[in-house]
Amino acid sequence: MPALADGLIHGFVAPGFELVQEEFINNFTKRGEVGAAISVFIDNEVVVDLWGGYRNRRTRDIWEKDTLVQVFSSTKGFAALALALAHSKGYFSYDEKVSTYWPEFAQNGKESITIRQMLAHQAGLSPLHAHPIQTFDDLDTARLATFLAASPPAWEVGKIHGYHAWTIGALMGELLKRVDPQRRTLQTFFQEEIAEPLQAEFYIGLPAKVSDNRITTIEGINHPLQLLKGITRLPRKMLLGFLTPNSLVARSLVDPKRLVANDHFNHRPMLSIEFPSGNGIGQVHAMAKIYGAFASRAEKLDLLDCTMDELRRPAAPPQDGYYDHVNCMNIAYSLGFWKPFFDLKFGQSESAFGHPGAGGSFCFADPDKKLGYAYAMNKHGFGMANEPRELALRKAVYDCL
Question: What does residue 60 show for φ and ψ, rounded to 5 degrees?
Answer without folding.
Answer: 65, 25
